[in-house]
Amino acid sequence: MEPAVKTWLARQARAFLRRVGLKEGQTVLDFGCNKGNYTIPASEIVGPHGKLYALDKERDILSDLQRNLQKQGLSLIHISEPTRPL
């Protein structure tokens, strides 16, 4: 990720999500969540009464995201990879 993008995310992601209408108590899907650049700030916004689902096709990335969330004491996120038809 570009350093400028990384800096913007660190400083502005929460404010951006609030500007687009994310509120406490909502249910949210972060589709293509990657390492959680929006997942983590979104989980802080929706709070304990909200629900946040993180979806990504890469199992390793989801494992990294789960570890990062646990380090930050966040547990309201439901993480999964897409199901594939038989």
Distance between the termini: 34 Å
Taking the sheet with the most strands, its summary is:
3 strands, parallel
Query: What would you report as the Rg, rounded to the nearest angstrom?
Result: 13 Å
Number of strands: 3
| Percent strand | 15-25%
The pLDDT mean sits at: 82
Coarse structural class: alpha/beta
Helix % is 40-55%
> Which overall shape is indicated by the principal axes computed on the Cα atoms?
globular
Helix count, DSSP H or I runs of 4 or more residues: 3
The helix/strand series, from N terminus to C terminus, equals HEHEHE
Uncertain residue segments: none
> Going across the major beta sheet, what is the strand order?
1-2-3
What characteristics describe this protein?
86 residues, three-stranded parallel beta sheet, alpha/beta
Offer a concise description of the structure:
This protein is of the alpha/beta class.
Structure report:
The chain is an alpha/beta fold. The chain contains three helices and three strands. The chain has a three-stranded parallel β-sheet with strand order 1-2-3, covered by helices on one side. Strand 2, helix 3 and strand 3 form a beta-alpha-beta unit. Helix 1 packs parallel to helix 2. It is globular. The N and C termini lie far apart (34 Å).
